[in-house]
Amino acid sequence: MFLRNFGMGVFNPMGPFKQNLRCHSVAILERNGLECGGKIILPPSALDHLTKLHIDYPMLFCLKNVQRNLQTHSGVLEFVAEEGLCYMPYWMMNRLMIEEGDFVEITSATLQKGEFVKLQPHSTAFIDISNPRAVLEMAFRAYSTLTVGDTIKVEYNSKIYLIDVLEVKPDNIHDAITIVEADVRVDFAPPLDYVEPVKPVAAPVETPVEQPPPEIEEPESLRFTGEYHTLRGGPPKQFRSDMTKSAPAEPITVPKPDDVIFKTRELKRGASSSRSGDVKRKRRKRGEKIEEEEEKPQETPKVVPFSGRGYSLR
């Protein structure tokens, strides 16, 4: 357009353009597409002043709320506003915290071409678009500058998305860049309404507690815990003290005195027979004659047939 012929490459000895204009929202003009952009509308007198100053293209401006010391940057769309008035997108008015009819200081500015910008969408719906970078590339045609702290508007499929400008490069004192004919890399921060997905908490795995093996008590080696008795029926002297300390055992049958006497006689008879046998062997060695005693065979009882008393039928 006609702005391309304004002072390109011409030195400006008269200083920057600076005016205080009463501000209104572009919504008053009832024109579509002006809200989702970053350009203002100035009066024709501003164009005459800019022409005399030989301002370089693209014409960029710093918009400042002097009372609150807030500022942002913009380009210019047209010079068709009423004298003393300026029209700007409503998001710029929010950035400067001004109302309809408030004054704003407008100064010409020179910004570096942008190389990088970091943006943060307000809604995850913008990230869910099939190709958000392509959408931004189309939307940036309505913008000339990006300033840190701005909340710009992007329209796509009849829906408006709010996006914050978090960072720009190269760094400069204005915290702003121009994106006109610039190759700008774009990075996204997580959206404001983004919520980290809750990781499912794995149920704790109960590890079986190893029980120690039961201790097997080894039986103590015990000697004979029964009762000791002599042939007379009493306990021997050497075991009397032990028997009192030992654990009680099952009772045993004590032989009767008659049985003990009978067994004692048999033992004596066997001992006497063994002594007589020794005497006979000694006498044989000396050559003495020994009359052999014939062993008397044991008499077997004769079987007597019926020895009862007989009776006749008479």
Automatic annotation (TrEMBL):
Family matches, as Pfam families: UFD1_N1 (PF03152), UFD1_N2 (PF24842)
Record domain Ubiquitin fusion degradation protein UFD1 N-terminal subdomain: where: 17-111, 113-191
Biased composition (Basic and acidic residues): 256-269
Renumbered residue ranges of the record's region Disordered: 227-314
GO-annotated molecular function: polyubiquitin modification-dependent protein binding
One BP annotation, GO: ubiquitin-dependent protein catabolic process
InterPro entries for this protein: Ufd1-like, Ufd1-like_Nn, UFD1_N1, UFD1_N2
Gene Ontology CC annotation, any one: VCP-NPL4-UFD1 AAA ATPase complex
Keywords: Ubl conjugation pathway
Family, per entry: Belongs to the UFD1 family.
The keyword Membrane is annotated on this UniProt entry: no
Protein name: Ubiquitin fusion degradation protein
